[in-house]
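Sequence design from tokenized structure. All designs in this work follow the same two-part layout: the structure record, then the generated sequence. An example of the structure record is given first.
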């Protein structure tokens, strides 16, 4: 794992099948709230992925985001992973973000996009 703001070094090359097997999609945050039971500050989000439905996730993004500032924002997430409990929350998606010294910067489309659109 690399430090914040440090480019990722050489890694084993991914195969085309590795990438094709990932389900990555655009969604819109429909609700967000602080996670009171988490050891580190987290936000629990409900994200609408259109035909895939609304999925729950949590993220340690409180350095740069507030729950109220996230509602209505479009994000990109990996949606095809198994459900994983994170600090007592059923996490159904993994938000994509760039890690910086200031905190995690969410990745999202630069213009309004239909929920559920695949990212390739």
């Amino acid at each position: 794992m690399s430090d914040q703001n440090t480019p990722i070094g050489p890694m084993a090359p991914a195969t085309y099948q590795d990438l094709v097997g990932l389900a990555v999609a655009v969604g819109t945050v429909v609700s967000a709230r602080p996670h009171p039971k988490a050891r580190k500050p987290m936000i629990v989000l409900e994200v609408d992925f259109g035909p895939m439905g609304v999925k729950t996730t949590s993220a340690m993004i409180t350095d740069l985001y507030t729950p109220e500032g996230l509602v209505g924002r479009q994000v990109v997430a990996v949606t095809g992973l198994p459900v994983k409990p994170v600090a007592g929350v059923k996490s159904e998606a993994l938000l994509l973000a760039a890690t910086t010294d200031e905190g995690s910067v969410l990745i999202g489309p630069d213009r309004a996009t239909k929920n559920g659109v695949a990212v390739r």
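The beta strands are 24-34, 43-48, 54-59, 74-78, 84-86, 89-91, 94-95, 97-99, 104-106. We note this feature because it recurs in several other targets discussed in the main text.
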